[in-house]
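Q: Hi! First time doing this. I have a protein sequence and I read that you can turn it into a structure. Is that right? Here it is:
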Amino acid sequence: MSAKTDRHEQWLAELTALPTVAGHEDRVVEWIERWAARRKDVRMSRDRAGNVVLKSSVRTRKPPVILTAHIDHPGFVVTSVDRSRRVGVEFRGGVHTPYFEDARVDLFDADDRVHRGTVTEFDHKTSTGSVRLDRRSGALAPGDIGRWAFNARSLGIRGGRLFAPGCDDLAGAAAVLAAFDLARKAAPQVRVLLTRAEEVGFVGAIGACKAGTVPERAELIVVENSRAFVAYPVGSGAVVRVGDASTVFDRELTNQVTRLVRSYAESHEGIRWQRRLMDGGSCEATAFGAFGYRATSMSLALGNYHNMVDIDGVLAGSRPARVGPEYVSLDDYHGLIELLAHVAPRLGQAGEAALQERLDDLYEAERVILG
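A: Yes, that's right. Below is the predicted 3D structure, encoded as structure tokens:
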């Protein structure tokens, strides 16, 4: 393993281990602040929505290319703590109701101490419930956060995969940071936008659009983790995502990314990729497109989407619900970084003919056939 690969895997492991939830992404932001501080040519800022922006200190007139990912994950927010062992919680994110029944949860206080308990009540209509702690605690307070509890032996790297409490979308954030780190010196137009509160409806991305965080001429590649299916299983390569459950993305930008990825893969042995409509959920490219920005997506296939094991079997009633670590392929992750670092600096280059121009050329060459 090269030093670069080892470093990228370290970032992946560290980020996906951090507890985070919509509106309470502080631990992830602090990690990014430390990361940016070690790079003297990187400027970090926050917009009005609290999203993180990273860019090179070198000025350029080229339109920005923005690599974006979100930094929250489905999880719990403490709403009340009584004198016994009962804690009121709100869940932020999309998880089916059966997975909450008697589920084990880790709640984190302000000093990062872990308080384990069991979900005893959950109302899916209000996304609120109760957790009964194993031991009484006076340290927890409203605003503390939590996530599903996992045995330490179920986490970590094995079999070429990373198993973590939350890959979606912290694995995407790690890939974005790694690609930016590789590309920014030669291509200062490449930037990073790390958004908040995606899991409750793209709130951070919408805030970025309303705040003018994204320049008008920007092109965006949204990096996501999308639920794996038979057509695109974990380990089958990074995906050029043409759309999601809500919409299709910018046609010409998606085609341009596809051409760059295809030409790179043809000359670099071992790069696996595919082009798919990943409709297992919706991503922020939909939000950016709705506000008039040119946006597309590249994604990692994700196992145990939102920590739900065998979603189809549970919803069909053929097996009991069980939460588990999310997982991604390390080969997919490293391939995604390599492709992003190649693609982002080359977007908008002269010579990338639009589809209509290529069809015009084809027509002129072959119109004689029509008589």
